[in-house]
Design goal:
Layout lengths: L2 E7 L2 E7 L27 H18 L6 H27 L7 H8 L4 H13 L12 H10 L16 H20 L4 H8 L5
Antiparallel strand pairs: 1-2
Helix pairs in contact: 1-2
Length: 203
């Protein structure tokens, strides 16, 4: 994880910021406690690592502009821990709710104990169709919805705000979203063409 602390030096007390883990932002460090077998599953991708580095630098400047105080250290650590938990949960979600069961790896991923923070997000979406985003979280509401719906987690109902719109107005609103997506897709090259253009296979 990322941690700030104070250490005794030859010339007094100095601030230390430790960044990690090196195997991927949001992952479980080797040798650390591994509840529920999470270490086998969680490995942050490059995007998560880059984000944690960038946010760590910004947070460093925000929390420690001059004098290092214990309250600043505690705030830095609290924010860093919350961000790592958020990324960790999003990564685990992809593996845990998938319907794939063809190997022991995927079987364990589906039955493993997951963090209570992630279980709450899944339960909230399944029971109420709600997804909330805490300010400064990396993954927005649409990211969580796309993964859960794509992996087969469906709400038992729908958001009550939909009842405030007549059916015709709601259909028009959804069609406008569909139309915008289709217009963007028409501007993109087909998958095979894109691969041939940017990263063709070498003989």
């Amino acid at each position: 994880g990322v941690a700030a602390r104070e250490a005794e030096g030859h010339e007094g007390v100095h601030g230390i910021v430790e960044g990690g883990p090196s195997d991927g932002g949001g992952g479980v460090q080797r040798g650390a406690p591994d509840p529920g077998g999470l270490q086998k599953i969680v490995r942050g991708g490059p995007g998560g690592r880059i984000h944690l580095v960038q946010r760590g630098i910004i947070r460093l400047l925000q929390c420690f502009p001059d004098v290092i105080r214990q309250a600043d250290i505690d705030e830095y650590n609290q924010q860093s821990a919350a961000e790592i938990v958020h990324i960790r949960d999003f990564i685990i979600l992809h593996y845990h709710v998938t319907n794939r069961r063809d190997t022991p790896f995927w079987q364990e991923a589906a039955t493993m104990a997951i963090p209570s923070t992630l279980q709450h997000r899944i339960d909230l979406f399944r029971e109420t169709a709600k997804v909330f985003r805490v300010p400064n979280e990396l993954f927005a509401e649409n990211s969580w919805v796309q993964v859960m719906l794509g992996q087969g987690v469906e709400p038992s109902g729908w958001h009550p705000v939909t009842r405030l719109m007549p059916d015709a107005e709601l259909s028009g609103f959804l069609e406008s979203i569909r139309g915008g997506i289709e217009r963007q897709l028409r501007q993109l090259a087909p998958h095979g063409e894109y691969l041939m253009r940017h990263c063709p296979a070498k003989d």
